[in-house]
Amino acid sequence: SGIEKPQVTWLFNGQPLEANERLQISESEDGTSTLSIKSAQLTDKGVYTAKATNAVGEAEAKTTLNIAGIKPLVTNDLEGALQATKGESMTIKLVVTGTPRPDVIWCRGNDDLVPSDRIQVTAPTAEGDDTYTLTILNVQPEDQGDYSAKISNVGGSLKSKKCKVTVMKSPVFVTKPNAQEVKQGETAVFETKIDGYPTPKVTWLLNGKPLTPKDGAQVELNAATGDAKLSIPKVDLQQHA
Question: pLDDT tens digits, residue range 73-99?
Answer without folding.
Answer: 999 999 999 999 999 999 999 999 998
